[in-house]
Amino acid sequence: MPAILLLEQSLNGLQFGLMLFLLAAGLTLVFGIMDMINLAHGSLYMIGAYFMASFAQMTGSFWLGLPLALVATAIVGALLEISLLRRLYGRDHLTQVLATFAIILIANEVVRIAWGSQPMMLNTPAELTGPVTLPGGMQYASYRLAIIAVGAVVAILLYLLVTKTRVGMLVRAGASNREMAIAMGVDIRRLFTAVFALGAALCALAGAMLGPIFAVQVGMGENILILAFVVIVIGGIGSIRGAFVGSLLVGIVDTSGRAFLPLFFGVFLPPQLASAAGPAVASVLIYLLMAVVLYFRPQGLFPARG
Amino acid sequence: MKGKLSTFALAALISSGAQAANELKIGFLSTLSGPAGAIGIEIRDGFNLAVKHAGGKLGGLPTEVVFADDTLNPDTGRQLAERLLKRDRVNLMTGVVFSNVMLAVWPTIQESKIFYIAPNATPTNITGKGCSPYFFSASWPNEAHHEAAGAFANSKGYKNTYLIAPNYPAGKDSLTGFKRMYKGNVVAEVYSKLNQLDYSAELAQIRAAKPDALYAFLPGGMGINFIKQFNAAGLAKEVQLILPGFVSDQDVVRAVGEPMLGLFDTSHWAYDLDNDANRQFVAEFEKEYKRIPSLFAEQGYTAALIIDQAVRDAKGNVEDEKTFRAALMKAPEHAKTPRGQFKEAANGTPIQDYYVRELVKDKNGRIVNRKIGTILKQHQDFWLKDCGMK
Hints:
The structure holds 2 protein chains of 2 kinds. Chain A is an all-alpha fold. Chain A has one domain (3-124, 139-296): ABC transporter involved in vitamin B12 uptake, BtuC, CATH 1.10.3470. Chain A has 11 helices and 2 strands. In chain A, strands 1-2 form a two-stranded antiparallel ribbon. The relative contact order of chain A is 0.19. Chain B is an alpha/beta fold. Chain B folds into 2 domains: 2-140 and 274-344, Response regulator (Rossmann fold, 3-Layer(aba) Sandwich), CATH 3.40.50.2300; 144-267 and 354-384, Rossmann fold, CATH 3.40.50.2300. Chain B has helices at residues 2-16, 37-53, 74-87, 99-111, 124-127, 144-155, 169-181, 200-209, 221-232, 250-256, 276-289, 295-313, 321-334; strands at residues 24-30, 57-58, 61-69, 92-94, 115-118, 135-137, 160-166, 185-192, 213-216, 240-244, 264-267, 343-344, 350-361, 367-379. In chain B, strands 7, 8, 9, 10, 11, 12, 13 and 14 form an 8-stranded mixed beta sheet that branches. The longest helix of chain B has 19 residues, at 295-313. Mean pLDDT of chain B is 91; it is low at 1-5 and 7-18. The chains are: A mainly alpha, B alpha/beta. The interface between A and B is large, with 49 and 41 residues.
C-alpha cells in the first residue's frame, strides 16, 4: 500500500465524516434537547438540497443560492415545528416515530409535485470543479476540500455557540434537564422553535454542500439519515462534541473498511472468498462499531445528560 | 338491451370459435413513486403516447389502462397484481420496472394465464430454465447491455478494465454479462454497498490501479453520485468510463449535466436512430412532455405498439392462448417501433442490435446520447439455451 493512497483514504474518511457531521449536528440538538425522535430530519435535508438547486439555477450562482436555501429551509423547519411537531413533544417515542415517518412520505410526494419526479441538477461551483494537486503530488477533488473546510468551520461555530453564548447555555440546560430549565423560567417554546430552525438550516447546508456530489432526488434524505442516527447514537444523544467525534469515527471506519478490508481478507483467504467477504463486512462495519460502543458505553461516548 | 348484447356476444363467440374481447383492459403495474419512480413514469409516458396515437384503441379495441404503483416493494406488487387480475379482470399485464418486483409478481400472472408484455425487467430466471409462453419482453434481456459493453471494450482495445457494481444479485449478474464478452484483463471487480453515497474510497483505488477503462453498473441515485464524484476527482481525463445505457440516459443526464460529457454507453436504441418511426416518436414525445425521451420511454412506447399489433393480428382474441401468442411472437416483425423491426426468440426476448452511444452536446446545446456505432448485431439472450420452448 503506497503511502500516498493511505493519505488519500484518510482524507476521504475525514471528508465523509465532516459531511455526516453537518447532518448529525442538527439531529442531535433536536433529539437531545427536545427528546424528540425526528425521522423527518432527512426530509429537511432533501428540501434544503432542492431549494439550493432551484436557487442556484435561478440566480445562476452557487454562492448566491446558498444563503437563500438556508433561510428558506429554516423557515420551513420553524413552520413545521410550530404547526405539527410541537404537539408531539409530550408523546411517547413511538408516536413521534410514526408521525415523523408520515412527514417523510408527505414531504417526498410534496417535493415530487413541486419539482417533478426527475432528480434535480446541482453542479459544483465553477471555481471548484476538478481536482487540485496537494503537496506530495496527490490529486484531490477541490470540492471535497471545500466540504472539509465548511464542516470544520461549522463545527467551530457550533462549539462557540453552545459553550460561549447565552443561547448555548439555555440549549445545554434544556438538554441536561428540561424540567429544571422550565422551572428556572426559560421560554422553552421559543427556544425549541429556534433550535429546530437552526437544525433545519444545518440540514440545508448539508443538502446544499452535498448536492453537487450526491443525487438530488426524492428520498435522498432516508439513506443518509440512517448514518446520521448511527453517528448520534455513537456520540451520545444531544452532544455536539459527540456528534463531531461520532461523525469522524463513522467516516473513517466506513471509508477504511471499503478501502482496506478487501485487501486485508485477500492476505489469508482465497480470492473468491475474499472478494465476497470484503464488501459484506465493510457494509456492516459501522453498525459493528455502534454495537461495540453501545456495549461499553450505553449512553454513547459523550452523553449530554448526566 | 341487455339481452341483445348477450346475443351479439354469443354470435361473436360462435363465429370466432373463441371469446373475442370487445374492449381491452391492460394492467399497468409499475414503480411510479419514491426515489425510483422517475423510471416508471418514463415508461408510462411512452406507453400513454402510443395509446394516444392509436386514438385510445390498441389493436382497434377501446383500451383502458389500469395503473397501479408497486412503490418498489415486491409484496405490494404481488397484492396489486392480484387485484388487477382478479378484481379488475385485466386482459394483459405490463409495466414492471424492477427485476425483484417482477420475480415476485410473476407466479401470480403466470397462474392466471394472462400474457405479460415486459417494458423493462426481463430477468434471466424467466428467460432461461423458467421460461414461459405468457412472458414477452419488448425491452432487452437483463444482461444484454452489459454484454454489449464488454464487446465494446474489446473493440476499443482496452487492455485493462476495472469493474464496479453494487453488492446485490443484479450487480453480480451485470459484471458476469460484461465478462462474458470482454477478452481483456479485469483489473479488479469491486462490489460497493447498495445505496452507497460516497465513492471516494473506490475512486482513490481506481486512480491507483490506472486502468484503461472503467465499467460501472450503478443504477439510480448511486450512478448519479458516482458520475458526479468521478468527474470531481478529475478521473475523467485518465480513465474512460463506460456505462450500460439504462443508467446513463436522459433521466440521469438531467440530474448530472455537464459531467456526463464524453462517457460511452450501450443501448438497444438511440434517440437519433435513422428511421421514420423513431423520428416521429422522438418529435411527438418532446412535443407532449417537453423533454427528450429516454430508452425507458422508448420501451413503454414499443410495448404498447407491440400490443397494438398483436391484438390486431389476433383479431381481438386476447384470451385465446395459441392465437394470441402466435400473433405476439410475430408482432415485432410488423410493428413500426422506434428501434425498427426485430425478431423475438422462443423464450420471449428480442433478437436485436445493440449500439454504443457517446454523451455529447447537440446543436442546441442539450446533452444527448448520440449513437456512434453498432456493437452487437442480432444479439440474442444467452439464457435462451436453457429454455425448452420452441
